[in-house]
Design brief:
OB fold (Dihydrolipoamide Acetyltransferase, E2P); single chain; five-stranded mixed β-sheet; three-stranded mixed β-sheet
Length: 230
């Protein structure tokens, strides 16, 4: 920017695979040189970059670029080229971006065009280690411990995802009405950076877990549910 300000798009997770990242960069290139309005969002990140929304002036939208791209974060997410994610924050500054993401997922755009591993499919998840993943499944067991709460998506002794929730985050989830009793047996969508400890594991932030209605069609899981491409 001419001002020298370094900014990062808020409530957005940049894709971490080369192909997806390249597609997102191409999308942004069509807006290079455009005038933007910077709308700050909260405190700077750990690299002192301002978290912000970047809004491109309508007259500066490149020929052939849709007007939805005037909001860079919303445009990328709406095209299926990035995820809506709180990153280092507890929750999204713009919760509406999840609805934008849901529309892209329903149409199978970009990142959502390929089947995703189910939360109960350990072998498929292990192939995603080190990557940001979005997975769906049914919570089989909730274990509350002093420092962390554990959400298990596979039966004991089988290979599946375990989600960890810090004590602080679990307290905030409980304030939202979630509990071990309300989550056990429930279908949810989780997102985060996948690791392998004893099995596939990720830690969620407050907005990293979404409860799903039972009328939603589930992702494939080892118990015979059919895969869904969104």
């Amino acid at each position: 920017m001419v001002s020298g300000l370094r900014a990062v798009l808020d409530s957005l997770r940049w894709p971490d695979t080369p192909e997806a990242a390249s597609a997102a960069r191409v999308w942004l290139e069509t807006r290079r040189g455009a005038r933007v309005t910077v709308v700050p969002r909260g405190q700077p990140d750990r690299w002192d970059r301002a978290r912000a929304d970047l809004l491109v002036a309508e007259g500066d939208i490149a020929e052939g670029a849709d007007l939805a791209g005037a909001d860079l974060a919303g445009g990328l997410i709406g095209a299926g080229l990035a995820y809506a994610d709180a990153n280092e924050a507890d929750s999204l500054c713009r919760p509406g971006l999840r609805l934008v993401e849901a529309a892209a997922r329903a149409r199978g755009l970009g990142l959502w065009g390929a089947a995703r591993p189910a939360a109960g499919d350990g072998p498929a998840l292990r192939e995603k280690v080190g990557h940001f993943v979005v997975a769906e499944g049914r919570i089989r067991h909730v274990g509350e411990r002093g420092a962390r709460t554990y959400l298990d998506f596979a039966a004991r002794g089988t290979d599946g995802l375990t989600v960890t929730v810090s004590k602080r985050t679990w307290r905030m989830m409980r304030a939202r009405g979630l509990s071990a009793a309300s989550l056990e047996g429930r279908r949810v969508r989780v997102r985060g950076l996948l690791e392998v400890r004893r099995g596939p594991t990720l830690e969620v932030a407050l907005d990293g877990l979404e409860t799903l209605e039972e009328t939603d069609r589930p992702e494939a899981d080892p118990e015979g549910e059919r895969g869904l491409r969104r």
